[in-house]
Amino acid sequence: MLTHDRCSLALTLASAVLHLHDTPWLTETWSMNDIHIMGRTSLLSDQPYLSKNFVPSTNNPSTVTPGQRLRIIKNSIVFALGVALLEISYGSPLSTFETAEDLDQGKRLDWTDYFIADRLAEGLAARELPNYADATRRCIHCNFDSSVYSLKDDDFRERFYQGVIVPLQKDYDYVMNNQGKL
């Protein structure tokens, strides 16, 4: 994937998280499997789309309640964005980077994805623009200098905007202004 495409998709996904976090369109357990990009022959080829099956039941088994979340992951939706940014950069699902150190005696644990994401995020600075790498690490670690981690909170939303969307927008603008030079 070209740098322009990665920056565009990253910014679009981060904006979608900000706008859709409190809607049925974006669950706490979303992943890149929920994102679809139209084929290059389509007029809408550069626009990602969310795919969502709405379940009429009030007990949706795919929804994770805050009490079920791992404490190490302070906001599942923001963590999922960080994972998506890693998968965009590395071009493969997170699970393909699993190592023995991420497992407990060969078994996957609830926090295995966090271990993988943490390791990959640390190496991201060598392969991505600095703002992309910083925004990704911020999402993985939910590092927004806040004691509240809910996108329903105005202060946290503003910190998310300043710490993720603004830097990704800067990278996008940089790439667009230097497209012929990269």
Top keywords for this entry?
mainly alpha, globular, 182 residues
Describe this structure as you would to a colleague:
The protein is mostly helical and 182 residues long. 44% of the residues lie in helices and 3% in strands. The chain is built from 5 helices and 2 strands. The protein has helices spanning 3-20, 76-90, 112-122, 130-141, 154-177; strands at residues 35-37, 48-50. The protein has a two-stranded antiparallel ribbon with strand order 1-2.
Q: Could you tell me the strand content as a percent range?
A: under 5%
Order of helices and strands: HEEHHHH
Briefly note the structural class of the backbone.
Answer: mainly alpha
What is the strand tally?
2
Shape: globular
**Poorly predicted runs of 5 or more residues:** 40-45, 57-69
Residues in helices, as a percent range: 40-55%
Largest sheet: 2 strands, antiparallel
Query: How are strands sequenced across the largest beta sheet?
Result: 1-2
Amino-to-carboxy terminus distance: 13 Å
Task: Work out the helix count.
Answer: 5
Instruction: Give average pLDDT, whole number.
Output: 81
What is the gyration radius calculated from CA atoms? 17 Å
Spell out the blueprint of helices and strands:
Blueprint: H1 3-20, E1 35-37, E2 48-50, H2 76-90, H3 112-122, H4 130-141, H5 154-177
Antiparallel strand pairs: 1-2
Helix pairs in contact: 1-2, 1-5, 2-4, 3-4, 4-5
